[in-house]
Design brief:
Layout lengths: L1 E9 L23 E10 L3 H11 L10 E2 L6 H11 L4 H4 L8 H19 L3 E7 L1
Antiparallel strand pairs: 1-2, 1-4, 3-4
Helix pairs in contact: 1-2, 2-4
């Protein structure tokens, strides 16, 4: 099972640093219009990884009743650690695994968590999407 996390909520200019596209793409976007944002990209690492992501989010992977989840109940530290293992880190470590995580790798794995935090504070709704 692969999985991803999406969020839907109101556009605010203050969110530009974490949105998926460059600021120029949002130049004509009205405040408050609904946006769909990818928070955690599709992870294709297998069933165990999808289940681990679901656990960090407080979701049951195949219980569709839980797929709209409360972002305030996410285990942020567990999610950061999880993403550090499965998202590509810095350019130097994308092709060769690092023996130790460097600062650039830590920042790369924290970006989705930082985005989740900002979007939840802006009133976005979050969705777990399993595939498999």
């Amino acid at each position: 099972m692969s999985a991803e996390v999406l969020a839907i909520g109101p556009f605010r200019r203050a969110l530009l640093p974490v949105l998926s596209h460059s600021a120029e793409r949002y130049a004509a976007t009205r405040e408050g219009v609904s946006l769909v944002e990818s928070v955690i990209p599709m992870l294709h690492h297998g069933n165990t990884v999808g289940r681990e992501l679901a656990h960090c989010l407080g979701v049951e992977p195949w219980d569709f009743n839980t797929h709209v989840f409360d972002p305030w109940r996410v285990d942020l530290e567990a999610l950061r650690a999880f993403l550090g293992r499965y998202l590509p880190g810095c350019a130097a470590h994308r092709s060769l695994p690092a023996r130790e995580t460097c600062e650039a790798c830590r920042r790369a794995s924290s970006l989705p968590v930082d985005k989740l935090i900002l979007l939840r504070e802006a009133g976005f709704e979050f969705f777990f999407l399993p595939n498999g």
